[in-house]
Amino acid sequence: MKTPSPDLIRFAICVSTLSALPLTSHAYLDPGTGSLLFQSLLAVLFGIGVAFRQLRQWIAKVWAFILRRPPPGDDPK
Amino acid sequence: MSMQARHPASFRDPAGFLFEDQGVLYRAVHPDAAPDVDLLFASGLYNELVAQGLLVAHRRADERTDAGAGWLTLQPERLPVISYACEWTDAQLHAAAMLTLDIQRRALRHGMSLKDASSFNVQFVGARAVFIDILSFTRANATPAWVAYRQFCEHFLGPLALRRHVPGAAALAGAALEGIPLSLVARLLPWRTWLQPGLALHVHLHARAMSGADGTAPRAARPGSPAAAQAFGLRLTESLEAAVRRTRPALRSSAWSDYRQNNTYSSSAADTKLEFVAAAVARSGATRAVDLGANDGHYARELVARGVACTAVEMDAACCERIYQSSLSPACSPSLNTLRVDLTNPTPAHGWHGRERASFIERLRCDATLSLAIVHHLSITHQVPFDAIAAMLADLAPDAIVEYVPTSDAMSQRLLAARTGITPAYLATLSEQAFLEAFGARFDCLSRSEPLAHGRILFHFRRRAA
């Protein structure tokens, strides 16, 4: 398995950071800057996952609709 | 509230602290944190968690006002055994991780979140993992991030992945306060763990993101949508659960895991041994015992069956895992604790001032100890003199039930065969006379058995008043 390039990962983190909300915390625990930024990437990944799931459901619905249609030869005259 | 009254491990969270008064444990809650505690109770989350046995029950101790004006005082249920993650079997750490995630998910659904995810927030009541830190619950904010995410990965997911894929490596961390750094976990894990989405995401990529960060504080937050933050939190929890589930430990075998089937005792001698142990424990009046070198936990389970709560202490990982699995049965679950501890190097006191986390010996004090078929391992293999063994047992409990194994015993002979310098003078230090002199300095002998298999003898000692 080829290890993903660190540059690619850093680029993905930067892009996702720009697209996600800036983060902060008011807890006594130090959450770690990198860890917080990484969660921005996770938010994007989870969002992509949800989008793919919805796309898959939409395709399944369309496919089911197509299959339900009667074949052209059976059309009532 | 004077600072001296604080529990030594309770100072990091400004939301409150534990203190003890006349043997009763209390938790003082700072006025700033009281709204979070009120929300925990008012939202129904507290009742749900306590009813499911996931959270230690707390009583509002409104009669106590010594913490100060505006402070809230709670009285948590006191747990009989306090243990640390380094003393847990793989399955126990797995159970503690799943408990933490389960609680986080339930908290999110009630508009709350855990602000920390330390393994020290989980304890075991028998075989059941239970969350103990009521001040970890806070109102969920609108930012899509879990502040305890890194801590969860370093306390639970990383160590679990190491235990699963690099057996023995997690033990190198010792009694760590802050888990194992993800950068170290990522370096130690084999490359094939990149193929597991959960570990690739939450360990490998997470570790790289942390190493790439410059350590400056993130910018101030803009308020987001609470619903989006909750949805992110639930997805993160679900993703972590999937990752933790894949680190589920497998039962392994070891040289000691089949000892019960391959030991020196015949069936009748084993029955005699059990009768002596049961009679000695009954004589001691013990309600809580510790079985040192418990092997498969047979005697610990026998004590539990007789109504005596027991902590089985064993060094061998495979044996420990079997004890824990057997303790999950309804008959044992509430009263049989399992700890994986090397008696020759038990967990030391550690943390701030060397007092934040108590040592194994301080935490394990009980009414009686069982030391069955273990003293010869300590004295021959580890060269611990009889008087040092007696001193430790006297420190742990007033009653000690000890099995003396003579050097003529087959197992002793095997252990001696691995040693050099076996002289008559050395063998004399392992004699019954030497054993009785060492224990006689600290204990009175209340009872001794007839010689059992290979001349083994059981003793019931009672600590002499100082």
Write the layout of secondary structure elements.
The complex is a heterodimer of chains A (77) and B (466).
Chain A: H1 6-19, H2 33-68
Chain B: E1 16-21, E2 24-29, H1 34-42, H2 45-51, E3 58-60, E4 72-76, H3 90-109, E5 112-114, E6 122-125, E7 128-131, E8 137-139, H4 149-165, H5 182-188, H6 197-212, H7 226-245, H8 267-284, E9 288-292, H9 298-305, E10 309-314, H10 317-327, E11 336-340, H11 360-363, E12 368-371, H12 375-381, H13 386-396, E13 399-404, H14 410-417, H15 424-428, H16 432-440, E14 443-448, E15 457-463
Helix pairs in contact in B: 3-4, 3-7, 4-5, 4-6, 5-6, 6-7, 13-16
Rg from alpha-carbon coordinates of chain B: 25 Å
What portion of the residues of chain A fall into strands of 2 or more residues? under 5%
CA-to-CA gap between the ends of chain A?
60 Å
> Helix share of residues of chain A?
55-70%
Kindly describe this structure.
The complex is a heterodimer of chains A (77) and B (466). Chain A is mostly helical and 77 residues long. Chain A is 65% helix and 0% strand. Chain A is built from two helices and no strands. By secondary structure, chain B is an alpha/beta fold. In chain B, helix 4 packs parallel to helix 5 (182-188), helix 5 packs across helix 6 and helix 6 (197-212) packs across helix 7. The longest helix of chain B is centred in the N-terminal third of the chain and has 20 residues, at 90-109. The mean pLDDT of chain B is 89. Chains A and B meet through helix 1 and helix 2 of A and helix 4, helix 6 and helix 7 of B.
